[in-house]
User: Fold Gfo/Idh/MocA family protein from Saccharothrix hoggarensis.
Amino acid sequence: MSNKLRWGVVATGGIADTVTGDLRLLPDVEVLAVSSRALPKAEAFAAKHEIPRAYGDYTELLADPDVDVVYVATPHVQHHAVARAALAAGKHVLCEKPATLTVPDLQDLVDLSRERGLFFMEAIWTRFNPLVARLREVIAAGDIGEVRSLRADFGFTLDHDPEHRLWNKALGGGSLFDLGIYPVSYAHLLFGEPETVTAHGSLVGGVDAEVGLLLGYPGGVHALLGSSLVSPLKSGVVVYGSRGLVEVPDGLYNPTRMIVNGVGHTYEPEGVGYVPQLREVVDRVRAGDVESPLMSHAESLAILRTLTKAAGQVGLTYDDVTVG
Assistant:
C-alpha cells in the first residue's frame, strides 16, 4: 500500500460523481481508477475528476493491482456481485446502501470480508455526520429524559417512469430500500433491532411507491417511519423523550441543523457531506480493521432484516430479480 490509499470507483452515475468529488478532498487519498460499462462514460468521468485510469468493465478495474479500495456505486441490484468480486480480488470495499437486497447476500459479503481480512462497509453516510453523533450524546446524557418514540420520514414526488431506477424493479427500485433505509437507520441507531415490524404501503409496477412502518420495542417504545415516491414527506426526524425532544427539521440523511429542547445546533459540512464517512474508511483500512463500529456488519444486517420484513408485508420482494 502506497502512502496514499488508492481508490477505484465502479459506476459513473450521480452518486458516484458526488462522492468522488468529496473523496478528492482527502489529502491521503488518490482516486486512481474508474469503470463503466461504456468506456466513453468512464473516460469522461475520469477527465472531470482527474482520474488517471478509465476502464470499460469493472472486472478490469478489479484486476488493477494498484487499487486498494473499491467504491461500489452501481444500481442496487448489482451491489452484491460487484462487491463480492472486489473482495475476492483482495480489495477493501465501501458499497452504497443498501449493500444488498437480501439478507443472505449481505451475510455472504460479511463472511467473505472477514475470511479475507478486508474492510467492508455499507455506505450509510448519515452515521458519520457530527450532528448524528451529537444526537446520541444528548440522549445518552438524559437531556430529554427517557426516550419514548421516534418519528422519521423521507419522501418526494417522482413521476412514474418504468425506466427510472427508483421505479424499475430490475434495478432494485422502490422507496423503502432507497429512502426508507434512512428512517429505519435512525430507529436502529437509537433503539436497536425492533421486536415487531408492521408495514402498510402501495405497489406500482412491482415496486413500493410508499411505505409506512411501525417498529415496536419493549415497554411501548416505538418508531413511526415513512418513505414515499408519491408524496413530499418531510425529510426530518423528531425524537420524543419524557422531558423534551430533539428535532432534525430537514435533511435527515445529512443534517446541518438540530434543535435540542429549543436550542439550535449547526454543522457546516466539508464538501457535500461524505467526507466524515470517507475518512472513517481510510482510518479503518490503515488500522487493519474489517468493519467500522459506527456502521458495523451486524448493524447493516439488522437494518436489512427490518427492511425485508417490512417489504414482505407490502408485497415487495427482490428474490426474483437477477442481474442482467
Observations:
- The CA atoms of residues 60 and 94 lie 18 Å apart.
- The chain is about 35% helix and 25% strand.
- The two ends are 34 Å apart (CA to CA).
